Amino acid sequence: MRLRPLRVLCCSAALALSTPALLPGTASAAVPTSSVYLQNYTTGRNAAGSSGTVAAHNPKGNEDHQQWTPVAVGGGYQLRNADESATCLGRSGTSAVTTTCGADGTTWTITSSADSTYTIGAPGTSQYLTGSASDAAAVQLGSSGDLARWYLTPVTYATTAMPSADTRTLDQVTFLTAHNAFANGVDGDFATFPVSWFPNQNSGISKQLADGVRGFMLDDYTVNGQAVLCHNSCDGVSSPVPLATDLQRVVDFLRAHPGQFATVFLEDYASSDVLKSSLASVNGLSDVLYRPDQEGVATKGWPTMADLAARGRQLLIFSDRTRASDTASGWSTRDTFGVMYQREWTVENYWSMGGGIGASDWSCYSRWDTRPLTTDSSAFHPLFVMNHFRDYTIGSTAQTDNGKLLNRVQNFCTPAARKKPNYLAVDRYDAGSPSPLTTVGTLNSYILTPGQ
Question: Which terminus of the chain, N or C, has fewer Cβ atoms within 10 Å?
Answer without folding.
Answer: N
